[in-house]
Design goal:
Elements: E1 2-6, E2 15-19, E3 29-39, H1 41-48, E4 65-72, E5 84-87, E6 98-102, E7 106-108, H2 115-118, H3 122-135, E8 143-147, H4 152-164, E9 167-172, H5 175-183, E10 188-191, H6 197-204, E11 210-215, H7 218-227, E12 229-237, H8 248-254, E13 257-260, H9 268-284, E14 291-296, H10 300-306, E15 315-319
Parallel strand pairs: 8-9, 8-11, 9-10, 11-12, 12-13, 14-15
Antiparallel strand pairs: 1-2, 3-4, 3-6, 3-15, 4-5, 5-7
Helix pairs in contact: 3-4, 3-9
This protein binds NADP nicotinamide-adenine-dinucleotide phosphate.
């Protein structure tokens, strides 16, 4: 089978399309024929060798795949060959024609959902769900600012926030991104590259501030986020690419708090709850991953460059 292999940590050019043996499922494992693989920013940090989780070389990237069960190992009864599934982590990597997973890592893909959308479920929606339900316990009627709403996690956060009954404010950096966030139903949308947008956000909350902020670029925004919080407000650091200085007084005067997590750290019980919650939304169509770009598997290096550039528009997926 064809698969992307990384033999040494480095830039996008270390992603090589190669022929490798198709894996066979051992007991408790599932072999999935991958029809689409989601590209996430963490794939690029891992490829660089700068991520907290460092795989043994060589490895195939990708946790988020969608496709059809090809074969199952002994003892597997959750799925059978022919079933449509999405993956949440894998054993051998999703940037490939086939991926081996544990039985617990495959989840039914609703009949109406395309594989490309299925490849946009786990990391983006799992992160948004954990941030809103498990981390901050968002309550209907609260005001949510999704700071970076045009990308994978941002769109998921907007959709989940609206489904829960939050007043949703979102930001994006391009007209196309702003249009997308607006179309997804955010009540107010702002351009995070324009001066004065923070004041506009405050104004849109009637001067009270946001109860919740999901932050995609904390090294740039966290200091300002604290000033945008309502009393008892919570910020969740989802993405950060460096250090930042904050004023603790902004937290003290509001009795506010900063939360942070990585999806790798969620417990098995939390993960089960996440998939059950997501399934309800995916089946009903309230959760609809947005696929902005589909590229052939061989173009993984291009996908890794583009995922880090400004102008996000939902998900980039690779098609084997
Ligand atoms: P993505 O699809 O590449 O989207 C990036 C988002 O950040 C876009 O909405 C982009 O907007 C926005 N952004 C760019 N500059 C910004 C600024 N100055 N202020 C606010 N937002 C800005 O990435 P993603 O998958 O949504 O992930 C977002 C971040 O969260 C990444 O850093 C990722 O590594 C991290 N993440 C963490 C976890 C976790 O477990 N903690 C899980 C998933 C993702 P424009 O392009 O429109 O400017």
């Amino acid at each position: 089978m064809k698969a992307i292999l990384v033999h040494q940590f480095g830039g996008p050019e270390v992603l090589k399309l190669e022929d490798v043996p198709t894996p066979r499922p051992a007991a408790g494992q599932v072999l999935v024929r991958i029809h689409a693989a989601g590209v996430n920013p963490y794939d690029t940090y891992m490829r660089n060798g700068t991520y907290a989780v460092k795989p043994r070389l060589p490895y195939t990237p990708g946790s988020d795949g969608a496709g059809i069960v090809e074969a199952v190992g002994e003892g597997v009864n959750k799925v059978k060959p022919g079933d449509r599934v999405y993956t949440a982590k894998t054993v051998t990597g999703a940037y490939a024609e086939y991926a081996l997973t544990l039985e617990s890592q495959v989840h039914r893909l609703p009949a109406e959902m395309t594989y490309a959308r299925g490849a946009g479920v786990w990391v983006p929606y799992g992160t948004a769900y954990h941030a809103l339900y498990q981390c901050t316990r968002a309550r209907a009627g609260e005001t949510l600012l999704v700071h970076g709403a045009s990308g994978g996690v941002g769109i998921a956060s907007v959709q989940i926030g609206l489904a829960v009954g939050l007043v949703v404010l979102g930001t994006a950096g391009t007209e196309k991104g702003i249009e997308l966030v607006r179309r997804e139903g955010a009540h107010h949308v702002f351009n995070h590259t324009q001066s004065g947008y923070l004041e506009q956000i405050m104004k849109a909350t009637g001067g009270r501030g946001a109860d919740l902020i999901l932050e995609m670029l904390a090294n740039v925004n966290l200091g300002q986020d604290l000033k945008l919080l309502a009393p008892h407000g919570r910020v969740v650091v989802i993405g950060s690419r460096g250090d930042v200085t904050v004023s603790p007084h902004e937290l003290m005067t509001r009795r506010a708090s900063i939360h942070a997590f990585t999806l790798w750290g969620v417990t098995e019980a939390e993960e089960n709850e996440i998939h059950a919650g997501l399934m309800a939304g995916l089946e009903k169509g309230t959760l609809r991953p947005v696929v902005g770009k589909e590229l052939p598997l061989a173009e993984a290096p291009r996908a890794h460059k583009e995922i880090l550039e400004p102008g996000a528009y939902g998900k980039i997926v690779l098609v084997p």
